[in-house]
Amino acid sequence: MFSFSDHEMVLIFGLLGNIVSFMVFLAPLPTFYSIYKKKSSEGYQSIPYVVALLSALLLLYYGFLKTNAILIITINCIGCVIEVAYLIMYIIYAPKKLKISTLVFILVADLGGFGLTMIITFFVVKSSFRVHAVGLICAIFNIAVFAAPLSIMRKVIRTRSVEYMPFSLSLFLTLCATMWFFYGLFDKDNYIMLPNVLGFLFGVSQMILYLIYKNAKNKVETNSTEEQEHGCDDGNKQDFPSVVVVEMKENIV
């Protein structure tokens, strides 16, 4: 039987967390390849990348304040570079209105929010409590980020379509939350561990929803086609499955 110390377990799960997090950071590549091919970012939102950059910046700051946190520092350095690259490409190809709104978001959230956090924690909070203050801010922010997919889950239930909730991304987010939960557990870092419990639960919930609704839309469309072929409608009554399909299409933004 292999026996690992807590330090070795921190290293193992930290390395695994880095690998999975890197794959999550690369997940939007198809989106940006589409933007590059179309030479337009219209139809896509920049907010997820602005929020992801702020999250990476906060965790990077926390990693520098915390001792022996090189694995937190490395992945969030990489994350900052990737998110900045995404935002630059987005701004290049965005219409004027979206360019302005994205730059405002970056100025307010990433520069303003992160800058204000640094100023307050550096000049107001005592040095002995600084790492705890920043860790708490990171934990609260990450809980908010993990809760964000609730709107997508609601849309899946309402539209019975998983078009905007790919299974692979939900799987990698769940794996990511799992790796960082165990990293925080063995490192005795509640600011890393606790938010990832919520991340794991939401990730599993998304995968369950995907399995429930992955064929729901196809079944509705198939039933609609069969009824039309057999002449079930009398011309005076709307075909219910067809109405459902139309409503689903109208509800997909």
TrEMBL record:
Main subcellular localisation: membrane
Family recorded in the similarity comment: Belongs to the SWEET sugar transporter family.
Gene3D superfamilies assigned: 1.20.1280.290
Gene Ontology CC terms, in alphabetical order: membrane; plasma membrane
Role played: Mediates both low-affinity uptake and efflux of sugar across the membrane.
Signal peptide range: none
Organism: Medicago truncatula (Barrel medic)
Membrane topology type: Multi-pass membrane protein
Transmembrane segments: 12-35, 47-64, 70-93, 100-125, 131-152, 164-186, 192-213
Subcellular location field: Cell membrane
Full protein name: Bidirectional sugar transporter SWEET
InterPro entries hit by this protein: SWEET, SWEET_rpt
Domain of life: Eukaryota
